[in-house]
């Protein structure tokens, strides 16, 4: 048995005596895993899972991770990391729970299972989840995603020999090819973003403008979620209306916020106002993906209004 596999087994055994869902060969110690990946010149495969409640996580584990075809197929390619978010937290130490919470936030994980492939520094280059087809098909899928790292590194190397907007475009293409969330790009590729800004100070690519717009929208969403958590629909409506009046957003973000306003009005039972708001949202860009969906939203709200009127009439007769 190779020393690295002895290392993996020892690491798992040392993790509070907890049996990880993925079985032997997995660790929940993120920093130790990064150190091993650097030593062995491998990538990390990080499984964000809910081992005792998430049905798709359990299927992925049973159909793929526990199969010999997976274990053999990923050998010498990945250090395996299981980050678990169980309902029964007694199986995890407080230290591990804190680590996992920080990593969930850092990698902007919103659903389970999420599988991230990262380099030894923890910089992600691919993201996936459950895939049908079993272990052998999943290994082939991972092999394709693993090429993202080579493509990324080659693109960064090529960009290092370029200057100006040409360099900026090469770096932007490298980031786009990985298909990562903007928050993750900002967190783990901040240096690359800085290089893009330095190479193209006039922002001829529009990259900086787009990134700033997305950051503003993320701030809007965060504040809106606060109202949602409190169940404060009136507050959410006022906040959304003030945001639209501020003129801080345009294009896709403005249309998204205008659509949210219409949906809040519908939740408040203000169906006529919601219909008008949907029309205003569509007018921002009728041909966009969102613009083409708005008529469907409007029809569903109209059906809700009609059903509400029928229910009210029925109660009056009772």
UniProtKB/TrEMBL annotation:
Name the InterPro entries on file: AGR/TXD, Thioredoxin-like_sf, Thioredoxin_domain
Which stretch is the leader sequence?
1-21
Q: Which residues form the Thioredoxin domain?
A: 5-147
PROSITE patterns for this protein: THIOREDOXIN_2
Q: Which Pfam families match?
A: Thioredoxin_7
Alphabetically ordered keywords of this record: Signal
* Superkingdom as given in the UniProt entry: Bacteria
- Record protein name field: Thioredoxin-related protein
Name the source organism. Answer: Haloferula luteola
- Source species taxonomy: Bacteria, Pseudomonadati, Verrucomicrobiota, Verrucomicrobiia, Verrucomicrobiales
């Amino acid at each position: 048995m190779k020393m690295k596999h002895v290392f993996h087994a020892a690491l798992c055994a040392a993790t509070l005596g907890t049996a990880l869902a993925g079985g032997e060969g997995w660790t929940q110690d993120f920093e130790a895993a990064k150190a091993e990946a650097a030593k062995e010149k491998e990538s990390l495969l990080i499984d964000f899972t809910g081992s005792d409640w998430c049905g798709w996580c359990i299927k992925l584990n049973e159909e793929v991770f526990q199969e010999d075809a997976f274990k053999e197929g990923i050998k010498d390619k990945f250090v395996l990391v299981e980050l678990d978010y169980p309902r029964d937290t007694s199986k995890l130490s407080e230290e591990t729970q804190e680590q996992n919470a920080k990593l969930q936030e850092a990698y902007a994980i919103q659903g389970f299972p999420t599988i991230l492939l990262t380099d030894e520094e923890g910089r992600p280059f691919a993201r996936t989840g459950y895939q049908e087809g079993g272990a052998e098909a999943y290994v082939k899928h991972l092999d394709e995603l693993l090429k993202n790292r080579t493509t990324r590194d080659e693109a960064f190397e090529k960009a290092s020999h370029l200057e100006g907007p040409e360099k900026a475009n090469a770096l932007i293409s490298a980031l786009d090819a990985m298909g990562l969330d903007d928050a993750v790009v900002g967190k783990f590729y901040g240096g690359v973003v800085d290089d893009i800004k330095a190479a193209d100070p006039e922002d001829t690519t529009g990259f900086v403008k787009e990134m700033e717009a997305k950051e503003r929208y993320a701030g809007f969403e965060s504040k809106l979620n606060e109202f949602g958590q409190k169940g404060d629909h009136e507050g959410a409506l006022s906040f959304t209306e003030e945001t639209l009046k501020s003129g801080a957003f345009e294009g896709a973000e403005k249309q998204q916020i205008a659509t949210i306003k219409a949906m809040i009005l519908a939740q408040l039972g203000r169906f006529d106002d919601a219909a008008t708001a949907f029309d205003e949202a569509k007018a921002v860009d009728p041909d966009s993906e969102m613009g083409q969906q708005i008529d469907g939203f409007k029809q569903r709200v109209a059906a809700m209004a009609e059903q509400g009127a029928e229910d009210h009439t029925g109660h009056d007769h009772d």
